[in-house]
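Tokens as discussed.
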């Protein structure tokens, strides 16, 4: 069985990642509004009826802003650690809140979602590996350093959402105050392009097919710069830069040895009024 993946939005203005098979799906974080989540999924030909749960990586607002409305409207369970729930201040129906711990694997139909700790300036942050049969997709953003947990899980992935937040030179020359620059690169902040590229080139498995570069800084990075950097080392992997303004395409992830291709969701052209969310 294969997986379909898409970034609905990726950046400090909101993060939301879709991972699913033909029957069920999960959202990793929901930092954009319910209405905008619905619009973007509709344009991609994805159905909210297939979404069975939301998994929360940490409590920062760009990862949780949309959760209360989406969870209430669709009666979706929200998998969240107790410290993240407390620090995030989310107002959720108690019956929708399900706790998880480090290295727990939660089963959602044919999806197995495994959480593992990461380094970030949040109360109890986690990354996720989603497995369907023998196909694995990782969601690895908001990471201060490349740790052993990250290396171990990244090296298992057929596809991954991987943070490439900032370019070192742009951050150095940019207008951020010193304390903020120090936070970003201080081991509890974000991965730089250089750090992400080193992880990719050193630990990319031979069977990886897609890499979605995620959570790019608006002020300290450039999408074309990142694309060029990774394209030079892609070695056959499809490199996609996830946008902070629009959804990506839906990508079909499979084990090419065992999987038979299934119909990919069809993008629907929907005329909508442009509304500023942030």
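Sequence:
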């Amino acid at each position: 069985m294969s997986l379909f993946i898409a970034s609905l939005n990726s950046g400090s203005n909101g993060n939301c990642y879709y991972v699913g098979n033909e029957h069920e799906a999960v959202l990793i974080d929901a930092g954009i509004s319910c209405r905008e989540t619905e619009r973007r999924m509709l344009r991609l030909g994805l159905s909210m009826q297939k979404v069975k749960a939301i998994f929360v990586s940490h409590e920062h607002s760009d990862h949780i802003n949309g959760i209360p409305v989406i969870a209430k409207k669709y009666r979706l369970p929200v998998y969240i650690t107790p410290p993240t729930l407390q620090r995030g201040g989310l107002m959720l129906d108690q019956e929708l809140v399900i706790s998880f711990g480090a290295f727990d694997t939660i089963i959602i139909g044919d999806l197995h979602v495994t959480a593992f700790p990461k380094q970030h300036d949040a109360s109890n942050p986690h990354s996720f590996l989603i497995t369907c049969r023998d196909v694995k997709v990782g969601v690895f953003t908001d990471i201060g350093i490349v740790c052993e947990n990250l290396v171990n899980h990244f090296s298992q992935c057929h596809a991954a959402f991987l943070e490439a937040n900032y370019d070192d030179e742009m951050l150095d020359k940019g207008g951020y105050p010193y304390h903020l620059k120090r936070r970003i690169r201080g081991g509890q902040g974000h991965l730089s392009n250089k750090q992400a590229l080193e992880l990719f080139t050193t630990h990319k498995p031979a069977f990886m097919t897609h890499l979605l570069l995620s959570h790019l800084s608006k002020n300290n990075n450039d999408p074309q710069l990142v694309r060029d950097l990774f394209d030079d080392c892609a070695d056959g992997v499809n490199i996609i830069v996830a946008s902070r303004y629009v959804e990506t395409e839906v990508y079909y992830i499979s084990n090419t040895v065992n999987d038979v291709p299934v119909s990919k969701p069809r993008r629907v052209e929907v005329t909508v009024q442009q509304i500023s969310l942030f």
